């Protein structure tokens, strides 16, 4: 431990801690625009400069390790003047357009400028300008607003390992974006939106679908329904000042009803449906590998990887095209919902599917890209018409004049609104794995999955790659070939971790039967469309809320959802049957990387 003094306060911190970390541990806040939790310090923005006694120059708090006996002043006149000058210089190049900017209410630069007492520009002159990029279905880039903090570069390269964004040129001419001034659609961008989630200003935002949804709601000839992803209910309250992890499921339903939707349903319903299809697919692959009917046929691809996260799917198409056969053929719950809504539900309520509009509320920007994929239209129509992020729904509720905090709890509509607790935990890293194991284990053995404290602990939590083994003993007669088999599973969240797993599987270093991959850190609860700013503390609060939602459900296994069982009995037939294969499954193709 090292002993330092910060603003006349004695502080003990571990060796290797930075000044910024030491200050935060003492409850002293130092502003920064480039620092990201757990990632390499950049010292790029210089907003966090502090004065250290004995040092000639001011030090960047985020990138300076503490030394024993160091005396630090975070708010001295010299540090405060320098910080104000740095922000003034950033403002001189920033085309804020604050009255129209998507980030005007939660812009970190605007808040910092206010806190520093900046009331008029100190430096007036030409601005460097920047590229406007509207090329992708999910994201919009406005280079004129960029403050070159490099957060997007850090998260794209270090966390996601996608490498779509880099600093180009130098000094005043610096541009943050794809190489050679290309658009995002020209490079291997998976549209996960983590760049938008960490951007302190409005330089990268989601492509808004709000106006299209408002128009649809106003059209009396359209039947407009909405589905809500499991992660949204643990984060939407943050848009209205509630603490992270506050469950607002019922209030969300009431707010959507007040906005005028004709049907309010739950993506959880098709999360349960996904487990029925995906679990059956996994068991079918295991049987083909361990007890093949025809030994002459090549064994099915194992491990099988989950396919519910669209950023991960696009990442695999770009970076691991040779392993696409390992992906589950299941559509994501969002897309399954659209296909079922425009067939089964439309027939049930007597609505022409051509007059039906399906809106999704998702924690994810990549879902906007997924909804636009041409192959996802097996109902004869585009499965999903509009995708709103959690942030966009929050803005629509505010624009609609709805007092969210005072709303009573509402309930989802039938028949696509009921779900098990297994569907809720799709929001969390490890959740899809646990939901699948609950069902697959019981189908194979006739017994509940043995767990500690209601959950499969080895696949929970924020460790980047998690592994578990499930021993199969005394299976039912149809699954006798699994007797004594140890099913090996893995869970990865964040595409950098997913890439490490893929490389280990490809090389033979690791062998698994089933692997869950989530694009975003923490899973969907940390998605690129969730309320900002997402730290590990926020992720854990949301994760714990989702587990509470699961634990309070009367049904906690997907194969016990009575409405899903009715869907199979009256419409689909059976998992992996002809109709479900047509409506609920798809395939993927390799994408060329620039």
Q: Can you describe this structure?
A:
By secondary structure, the chain is α/β, with parallel strands linked by helices. The chain folds into three domains: 2-89, Ubiquitin-like (UB roll); 94-118 and 128-206, Alpha-Beta Plaits (2-Layer Sandwich); 208-594, 3-Layer(aba) Sandwich (Rossmann fold). Helix content is 34%, strand content 13%. It contains 18 helices and 18 strands. The strands form five sheets. The protein has a five-stranded mixed sheet with strand order 2-1-5-3-4, sandwiched between helices. It has a four-stranded parallel sheet with strand order 12-11-14-15, sandwiched between helices. A four-stranded mixed sheet has the order 13-18-17-16, covered by helices on one side. A hairpin with a 2-residue loop joins strand 1 (2-6) and strand 2. Helix 8 (267-290) crosses helix 10 (333-349) and helix 8 packs across helix 14. The longest helix is centred in the middle third of the chain and has 24 residues, at 267-290. The protein is globular, with a radius of gyration of 25 Å.
